[in-house]
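Worked Example 4.2. Consider the chain below.
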Amino acid sequence: MKPQVATARAPFSLQLLADRPELVYAVAEIRWKEWGHAPEPEDLAYWVDVTQREAGRNDLPITFVAVDDHGAIGAVGLGQFDIDERRDRSPWVLGMVVRADRRGQGVGRALMGELEAWAAARGVVQAWVATGPAATFYRTCGWRITEVVQRGSGEPTTVLTKRLV
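Applying the procedure from the previous section yields the following C-alpha cells:
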C-alpha cells in the first residue's frame, strides 16, 4: 500500500485500481458525473465498462485511484490512445478526475505525479493528454500545450505533452 498523502481536508492514498477492484464502480460514477453527457456516452454502464477495462496492473491501460476513509475520491489512467485524430502518438492520460468536493486539495496533482513516475520507471519518454477546460490544471503540473484539435464532434480539444525522462 502506498503511503498516505496529507491534505488540508483529509489524508488519502494512491493505489492501482487493479488492487482495489471494489472501487471500479465508484471511479466510474465519478467519471460519469463529470462527463456523462453529450457528446460523451450518457449511460453509467458505459463508464463502468471503460473503467474496468482500464484497470490494468503491469501494462497499459492502467488506472491509479485516490482513496480516503470514505472511498474513491479521484482517478487517472494511462492508455495507448485517446483521441482518434491523434493515433500517431502514445501513451495518453485517460480519465483524470477528482470528485468535486475534493478539488483544490492536491489530489489531482498527486495522481498525476504517481502516473508520471510509474510511466517514467517503465521507460516512457513522453506522454500526451487531450482535454477541454482542464488545460490549466495540466499546465500547472508541467505539461505544455502542443495544439488545439477540432474533433469530429465539432468540439475543440487542447492537446498537451510532457517529457517524463
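The mean pLDDT is 91. Residues 107-121 form the longest helix (15 residues). Compare this with Example 4.1 before moving on.
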